[in-house]
Design a protein that fits this description.
The chain is an alpha/beta fold. About 40% of the residues lie in helices and about 15% in strands. The strands form 2 sheets. A 5-stranded mixed beta sheet has the order 1-7-6-2-5, sandwiched between helices. The chain has a two-stranded parallel ribbon with strand order 3-4. The protein is globular and about 50 Å long.
Length: about 210
Amino acid sequence: MNLSYRIAWTCFRAMYATYFRWRVFGAENVPLQGGVILASNHASFLDPPLVGCGLKRDINYLGRESLFRFPGIGALLRSWNAVPVDRDGGGAKGLKIILDRLLNGAGIILFPEGTRTKDGNLQPARSGIGLTVIKSQAPVVPVRVFGTFEAYGRNHKFPRPHRVVVKYGKPMNFDTLRAEAKSCDKTRLKEIYLQVANEIMAAIAKLEPKVD
């Protein structure tokens, strides 16, 4: 961790421990080194730092490209390993940066649902994460957060002191589908992307415990 990241990591951990009374489960499932995709459900703006702060390694995050245009903010976001992506997060430039960082041994957080839930329930996965997984060689760790919707969901103006929980599942390997994707036709390739996305979302759904 660079100094800026470590300071932010320490401050967020203190906030989650005190204000949100957090619990962390399964952090040992995430390798401390090497490329890894952390695939999490998405209920709140609290989710990205929560998933990252539960680990003792630095993680890369996705940030809306427009945020990087503000003086100072862009530099700060980059110091926190943020990756600029377009509004939908599916641009070729953003994908290349993500794949390059994974290849160089970085970890990155992705949200299969694509956006925050409106009602606190899990949403269907979008195929975009399938494309990223297939084009990379990194293992995928399913992650589930609990309580962040109640603490700071779309309907809240300010965070509430509600307990939050993050649980990391066992790594998933998609080598068989990656091998098939190298030679299949475009129709099958799209099916593979969606299949990977759905399998990841199913693994997320199986993770417990729920919030007290």
